[in-house]
Amino acid sequence: MLIVSMLLLIIIFNLSGNFFSGGSNDNTMLARLIPSGATITSIETESITIERVGRGWRLLPGRLGVDNQVLSEAVAHWQQATLEPVAQGPINGAVTVDVWLAGEGQPRRYLFFQVGADMLVQYPALGGQSYKVTEMSWQQLFITDIPHA
To answer: What are phi and psi of 44, to 5 degrees?
Structure first.
């Protein structure tokens, strides 16, 4: 009887979602592009991949003039980038980026947009909310020129 009672309690708590936190994940607002303390293992865009190799980084396909220091700085920019929610309608011309974090079985897929002077990002796993990437430029995150959207 005790085992059955415990199983029922476990089922109730699992079905209640965020019972104790008072909210659901759908309303979660992002404050940082990458969660604090998370370890990036690779960043995959449509044209390049930055991946961890031992203690360093490599760029695929390789380019002259892009060494480990440049790649380390780019990854640090991803980890430091802060976000600010913005009201934005539908946007076209997304650059899709998959970021793999240590301990996660699937990449985090982000959609980046250049709108005027602002860089916007959407994280579809949390809905369609758009965020302005603050204090970072396109070149700091992507090591490339701004796309023509």
So the answer is: -115, 120
